[in-house]
Amino acid sequence: MSNRIGSPCETCECWAPVVGTILILVGVFDLGFGTAIAAASIELGQLAGEVEASSGLIKIGHTLSQVTGGLLQFGSAEQGAVVKEVLGELPPVWLSLLLAVGRILLAMVAVVLGVALARRFQKAVLPLSRWAIVAAGWGLISMLFSIGLYSFIGKTSGVAAAGITVLLDLALHVIWPLAVLWRIRLARIL
Q1: Rounded to an integer, what distance in angstroms lies between the CA atom of residue 47 and that of residue 45?
Q2: 91 within 8 A of 156, measured Cβ to Cβ
């Protein structure tokens, strides 16, 4: 039995290099996207820490501003109150960072398995099917925990932007891994 998918004597198994190449491209894109989300989560964490440290002053300044009808303004108490409200609508920072790190790890594995599949290594098929199941599950969990983020995008950028974000997230993190799994099962290599 050969260690490669397809052989010179048989018909071409062209699906493996095609799916492998697409897997590499999607993995590289997801690496960048996951890294951007991780960086944004770290920045939001620092911002949340600063807002929490100034929480008492923000409350006092906001209360004095409301009591005086806006005549007394202390620093940026109004802006601090708005930032605190916005941070309250977003998912917890630790959760966003955890989901981003999971996405980065799955993307790195996808790139490695994509290279192996593009080179037609048969031993990559079983780990790839396991990756597809884990990636689709992680994608569903990630989407469930990101409902607050989708809501925030809908409030700030409009329902169309939130809808596009949900569809892209669904396609990239759930449908794509399931399509890879379906293609592997269709080839009956396992």
Answers
A1: 5
A2: no
Question: What does the CA dihedral 84, 82, 47, 31 come to, rounded to 10 degrees?
Answer: 100
- Phi and psi angles of residue 188, each rounded to the nearest 5 degrees, phi first: 55, 45
Query: pLDDT tens digit string along 103-156?
Result: 999 999 999 999 999 888 888 889 999 999 999 999 999 999 888 888 878 888
Number of H helices, E strands in the chain: 8, 0
Query: Among candidates 84, 47, 46, which has minimal Cα distance to 62?
Result: 84
Which token pair is 34?
Answer: 């996951």
Rounded-to-integer distance, Cα 79 and Cα 82, Å = 5
Of 190, 26, 30, the residue nearest 124 (C-alpha): 190
Instruction: Indicate the pTM of the whole model.
Output: 0.76
Q: In terms of DSSP H, where are the helices of 54-124?
A: 55-67, 77-89, 93-118
